[in-house]
Write a structure and sequence with these properties.
single chain, about 300 residues
């Protein structure tokens, strides 16, 4: 069953990326904040469902305990959603998926862990691929953002996937201190069986509170949120994101060493879906650079697994 869950997770997160992009409309000023609200609302519903159906002995103080990690994840996603308004999904998703390599490097630098030669090669391949994406992007003259945005804004938009990768990597690195050792974790009242569920529930509840703050902010700014049918892409992205998060746990509980590289191929799924449904078309040189990046991501996932 773990293999089925791994494939389902990959598909769900690929669909989430597709609908994130569809919902992040360039002409909608607060589209990225509206996506955050939708994601937070769905995650909050899932968190409540977890608390009502699972006996995880949840202590509300864990909301504060897990806040530092959650903020890295949430802010990184907000940056990602902002970038999606202007950057092709085919470009942003592979860049964002290099966060795993960044997390590995943080563990080497600060935790004195070591990387194998194949892992170093995989990270080097990723770096070459990402640099290639950036280089060929600078040579493009046909991008919409270069035509409608100022040069400064175009640069800021292109930096968003990188900011996501950095913040997500830091969040994952800090997560090590929370989830690696039950005896040393800052979380309260957890066991080996419940620690991940408690952490995930805390993250979802914090995201829900963050979404509520954003919703109030937009109300104060007199921003019209719109009905659910009008925001269906944003809602669907939130549903697929949360559903994938749910199946991910079961996928990794079986054979994580094999499930991890399968799930890491979500950027391949995203690339295909963007080409088919969003009609994104890039110069062949950028596709080569993106392909190199994806090869590095899959290599590192297999090696780490």
């Amino acid at each position: 069953m773990w293999l089925i869950f791994a494939l389902i997770t990959t598909l769900l997160w690929g669909l989430a990326e597709l609908f994130y992009k569809k919902g992040a409309r360039q002409d909608e000023k607060y589209a990225h904040l509206k996506i955050c609200v939708c994601v937070g609302a769905v995650m909050g519903i899932h968190a409540i469902f977890t608390l009502l159906t699972q006996d995880i002995n949840y202590n509300p103080i864990n909301l504060l305990r897990y806040l530092p990690v959650s903020l890295f994840y949430i802010v990184s996603m907000a940056f990602s959603f902002f970038g999606m308004r202007f950057i092709e999904e085919s470009i942003s998703d592979p860049i964002e998926n290099t966060s795993g390599a960044m997390c590995s490097l943080l563990c080497v630098i600060f935790l004195k862990e070591t990387l194998s030669i194949p892992a170093i090669v995989a990270i080097a391949i990723m770096v070459i691929g990402v640099l290639g994406v950036g280089f060929f992007e600078s040579k493009r003259k046909d991008t919409v953002r270069k035509k409608v945005l100022s040069k400064k804004m175009a640069v800021i938009a292109f930096c968003m996937p990188f900011l996501y990768a950095i913040l997500d990597a830091v969040g994952s690195f800090v997560d090590v201190f929370y989830l690696d050792d039950v005896a040393a974790t800052p979380l309260i009242g957890v066991t080996e069986e419940t620690i991940e569920a408690v952490a995930n529930t805390s993250y979802e509840l914090i995201f829900a509170l963050f979404a509520l703050i954003l919703f109030v902010f937009m109300k104060i700014k007199k921003v019209e949120f719109g009905s659910i049918p009008k925001q269906k892409d944003k809602v669907l992205s939130a549903v697929f994101e949360t559903a994938g998060q749910f199946t991910y746990v079961y996928a990794m509980s079986g054979n994580g060493a094999v499930a991890a590289p399968i799930i890491s191929s979500v950027c391949v799924v995203s690339l295909l879906l963007s080409r088919i449904f969003l009609k994104e078309k890039l110069p062949y040189k950028q596709y080569i650079a993106i392909g190199v990046t994806i090869v590095g991501i899959l290599m590192l996932a297999i090696i780490e697994g």
